[in-house]
Amino acid sequence: MTVTTAKWTIDEYHHMIAAGILDNRRIELLKGEIVEMRPEGEPHAYFSSEAGEYLIQLLGNRATVRPSKPITLPNNSEPEPDIAVVQRLGREYLEHHPYPENIFWLIEYADSSLDKDLQIKTKVYAEVEIPEYWVVNLRKRQLIVFRYPQDGEYASKSTLTGGTIYPQAFPDLAISVNFIVSI
Fold first, then answer.
1. pLDDT of 167 higher than 80
2. What is the Cβ-side half-sphere exposure of residue 8, based on CA atoms within 13 angstroms?
3. Residues 90, 77: Cα–Cα separation, whole Å
4. Mind spelling out the 3-state secondary structure of 102-139?
5. CA atoms within a 13 Å half-sphere pointing along the CA-CB vector of 90
6. DSSP state letters, 151-182
7. Among candidates 84, 132, 165, which has minimal Cα distance to 176?
8. Is the confidence at residue 183, as pLDDT, over 70?
9. CB-based contacts of 14: which residues, under 8 Å, 6+ apart?
10. What is the Cα–Cα distance from 35 to 43, expressed in whole angstroms?
11. Cα separations (Å) of 127 from 27, 62, 70, 121?
12. What is the pLDDT of residues 85-109, one digit of tens each?
């Protein structure tokens, strides 16, 4: 028996949200599939919140830090990364969530979602050429950095446990890895 799943467009997904069909569910749209998001554990909530505040202080008016808000991607995806560092477009975001061209980099904190964040989301983000994607492995307190999207994959992957990282969008901005992975 062959199972065929229904694929959803972003417009259909938005209609379901507007109609209240998806109320009280933690979900995101990935490549046309509605995917349940697991509840955040305490470490996930703590580290992503603290890192978000740290990045807001570091970036000042250079970018907007959006915690756990949707981004809209042209591959029928509307994920909700833990942190999205995006262009400061102000009220324009009343009309749409950030698109790939508005995104400087994304950060996901992962424990139970580690496989999804390293395998599925990496491809979703690389496919639409998000320039940089960080995954914080909460189990090992590691920062996994993906850069240089090419042909639907990231050409560069590095793993950090300390030191300083300079995001591609802001090469003069020194970010302490410890503040991202183990505040």
1. yes
2. 16
3. 23
4. HEEEEEEEECCCHHHHHHHHHHHHHHCCCCEEEEEECC
5. 2
6. TTEEEEEEEESSSEE--TT-TT--EEHHHHH-
7. 165
8. no
9. none
10. 22
11. 21, 26, 17, 10
12. 999 999 999 999 999 999 999 999 9
Give the length of the chain: 183
Cα(110)–Cα(138) distance, integer angstroms: 6
- Check if the beta carbon of residue 110 is closer than 8 Å to that of residue 118: yes
Q: Two tokens at 180? A: 């991202």
**Percent helix, strand, coil in the chain (nearest 5)?**
30, 30, 40
SS3 (DSSP) at 82: coil
Q: CB-side exposure of 116: number of CA atoms within 13 Å?
A: 17
Tokens of 116: 């999804």
For residues 63-76, give the mean pLDDT: 97
Query: If pLDDT is split at 50, 70 and 90, which confidence band does 31 have?
Result: very high
